[in-house]
Amino acid sequence: MIYKPYGYLSQFRSRDSKQQSKRFLMELYYFPEGTMAIGRLDEKSEGLLLLTTDGKMSDYINSQKVEKEYYALVDGDISEEAISKLQKGVEIGFNGKKYQTKPCKAFKLKEAPQLPERSQKIRDARHGPVSWVSITLNEGKFRQVRKMTSAVGFPTLRLVRVRIGPIQLNNMKVGEVIPVDVLI
Fold first, then answer.
1. Is-contact 11 25, C-beta < 8 A?
2. Residue 100 CB-density burial (10 A; 0-12 exposed, 13-18 middle, 19+ buried)
3. Which three-class secondary structure state does DSSP give residue 125?
4. Which residues, including other chains, have CB under 8 Å from residue 109's CB and lie 6 or more apart?
5. Which end of the chain has the smaller Cβ count within 10 Å, N or C?
6. Half-sphere exposure of 124 (CA within 13 A, CB side)
7. What is the pLDDT of residue 85?
8. Does the record carry Isomerase as a key word (predicted)?
9. How far is CA 48 from the centre of its chain?
10. 112-128 tens-digit pLDDT
11. Cβ–Cβ under 8 Å, residues 134 and 107
């Protein structure tokens, strides 16, 4: 498991001409041949990412059987109405089509989570209210959490995956890698 830093791609392939300025996880450490990220976090997202050389494990965790929990810092003081909409599922765009997200667990966090500071500054409460929400999904469409919070009127400012199944981010440092033998 790795705490994927903000600004890195969850990929282990060589750069093509379109990605010359991008940063990849393979630049942080030496990973064994055949290492792949289980699922992805986009360049602007951070947090828990599992790495493996086992394709079957990757397929299982990417299936809809394993929960993934995210903390999202959103622009504004998220309302109970917006939380309710997230829980029931919202319509987002995916591959040029409308997609109805599945019901999920969502709630407003009472306090800001204790997370490492992000390498790039984020607009904070000095510029208007912000709030943190926990969203737990069993699916994972491209930029889904960001699209969901935007669909209910509260765009995501920071997104951190904190849990995959029983494996939690806990107090990991940004960029830290911890070997795990836990099967989900």
1. yes
2. exposed
3. helix
4. 71, 131, 132, 133, 134
5. C
6. 7
7. 97
8. yes
9. 8
10. 999 998 877 776 667 88
11. yes
DSSP assigned state of 134: E
Helices (H), 30-168: 55-62, 80-88, 144-151
What length does the chain have?
184
Lookup: tokens for 113: 């989570």
Rounded Cα–Cα distance for residues 77 and 80 (Å): 10
How many other C-beta atoms lie within 10 A of the C-beta of residue 121?
A: 7
The rounded distance, in Å, linking the Cα atoms of 165 and 151 is 26
Determine the residue type at 117: E
Written as one letter, the residue type at 168 is Q
Closest CA to 31 of 177, 161, 164: 177
3-state class (DSSP) for residue 59: helix
Mean pLDDT of the 98-118 span: 94
φ and ψ at residue 43, rounded to 5 degrees = -55, -35
For residue 57 the two structure tokens come to 């494990």
Using CA atoms, how far apart are residues 91 and 110, in angstroms rounded to an integer?
Answer: 27
Which of the residues 42, 59, 77, 181 is marked catalytic? 42
pLDDT digit string, tens, across residues 46-67: 999 999 888 888 888 887 789 9
